[in-house]
Amino acid sequence: MSRFLAPAALLAACLATPGVAAGLSPAEARMKAAIAADATRNEALLERLVLQNSGTLNLSGVTKVGEMMRAELAPLGFDVRWVDMKDTGRAGHLIATHKGDGRGRRVLLIGHLDTVFEPDSRFTGFRRDGTRAIGPGVGDDKGGMVVIVAALRAMQAAGTLKGADVMVVLTGDEERSGKPLSRSRADLVAAGKWADVALEYEGLAVTPDGDAGTVARRGASDWELVTTGVPGHSGGVFGAELGYGANYELARILDGFRRELPEANLTANVGVLAGGTPAGFVGDSFTATASGKTNIVAERAVARGDLRALTPAQEAAARAKMQAIVAQHLPRTGATLTFNEGYPPMAPTAGNRALLARLNAVNRDLGLPAMPEYDPAKRGAADSSFVAADADTIGGMGAAGGGAHADGEWVDLPSIQRQGLRSAILISRLAAERR
User: Which of 95, 104, 121, 148 is the most exposed place for a label (fewest CB within 10 A)?
Assistant: First the structure.
């Protein structure tokens, strides 16, 4: 089968071609039929989810989407509970647990209830344009949640859900995490320690050659740089008494980052900066203020940015290098660099790659092309990073689409069925393996 089939053609080949079911068991063939029968239902669920605004800071909206997902999971035999997170400034998380026979591999499914689109966003509503659905959060991550429901319903119809130990964690603050992360991600970390395998339902990676698998994601942590200098008349700058001032020290450090940090899969971005007498940030925001004059040596300068790395070792080495650059002060200046809590890296481990191989066995039996590894530098951080240290993990199991986090975000509707069938078969096979 050509790797250049369009998504709709891939789905048609998967669901309609008689010969592709040769590698499927009778139960898997029933899943295939159930996925096809639920197509209209799944699209209707997607529309209902999208029409309910659930911007991260819309606590009531996130809670309502959680209740909508409870209504989908509870009838499938899941014990569903809500974990309140208002003490972190966020709504909470939905955690659903299906107790199987206790003998197979434990499978964790990860998605999120919230979107980047708050109630005052100009991007609202839900509409269809051919095979596309367009709306706020339609792909990130409401399409992913629908894929989870589609897969679990197909498993129930085929009888494979009954013995499966499955947990679903839908966070309510993936787009803007509650603080501290040690609190807001505690339940997810615990779920990762419970699980043998984790599947994350952010959007499917699609390349010009076809679908791809996400076995790695870079982590992301914020940093803040503060430099200081001796204020005084600009006529004394560069001299022994005043030195170089805070602005030159900031420029030296940032240029050192530019020159010494770049390497594969590592980035250090400077998002905002300011310098003068005085200068600083407004609280915990990313709004910086500064004032001064051209004839005054700057007393203070500030900058905030992020660091992204592929592995914990790469991140640790980058942090050490950044601190070493900071420590080489210009005369009469000082500087401090601090790192905030962040998303850990999801490294491309042997276990993650073995899990992709299992997914590709499903693709083979469905007559679909094998999925290569997707470039981790093209993916953002995600909740799967919090479980990857404890469970074999693969990401991007959600629906295919585009324009995430922007007006016009869209999802390919046929991909919901394709992804739902892939997941249903993969989860069933994993759950049947003895631990």
Answer: 121
How many whole angstroms separate alpha carbon 271 and alpha carbon 282? 15
pLDDT tens track for 160-209: 999 999 999 999 999 999 999 999 999 999 999 999 999 999 999 999 99
Find, among 106, 117, 120, the residue nearest to 49 by Cα: 117
In sequence order, the β-bridge partners of residue 336 are 226
User: Do residues 357 and 197 lie in contact, with contact meaning Cβ atoms separated by under 8 Å?
Assistant: no
* Crossing angle of helices 350-366 and 413-432, rounded to 10°: 110
* Tokens encoding 322: 């950044």
Check the CA dihedral 218-95-416-28 and report its sign. Answer: positive
> What DSSP character marks residue 140?
I
Our CA angle for 164, 169, 173, nearest 5°, is 170
What's the rounded Cα separation, in Å, for the pair 189 and 182? 9
Phi, psi of 94 (to 5 degrees): -105, 125
> What is the domain range of residue 307?
219-343
Find, among 138, 143, 155, 141, the residue nearest to 78 by Cα: 155
Q: Based on the fold, state whether residues 321 and 355 are members of the same structural domain.
A: no
Phi/psi zone of residue 407: left (φ > 0), alpha (ψ -120 to 50 degrees), beta? Answer: beta
Please state the pTM of the whole predicted model.
0.90
8 Å CB contact between 348 and 265: no
Question: Would you mind telling me the total number of residues written for the chain in this entry?
Answer: 435
Q: Which of 281, 313, 343 lies at the terminal end of a domain, its last residue?
A: 343
Q: Tell me what pLDDT residue 22 has.
A: 59
Query: CA distances (Å), 28 to each of 23, 189, 347, 365, 419, in order?
Result: 9, 31, 31, 10, 14
Q: Is 368 strand, coil or helix?
A: coil
- Count of domains observed in the chain: 2
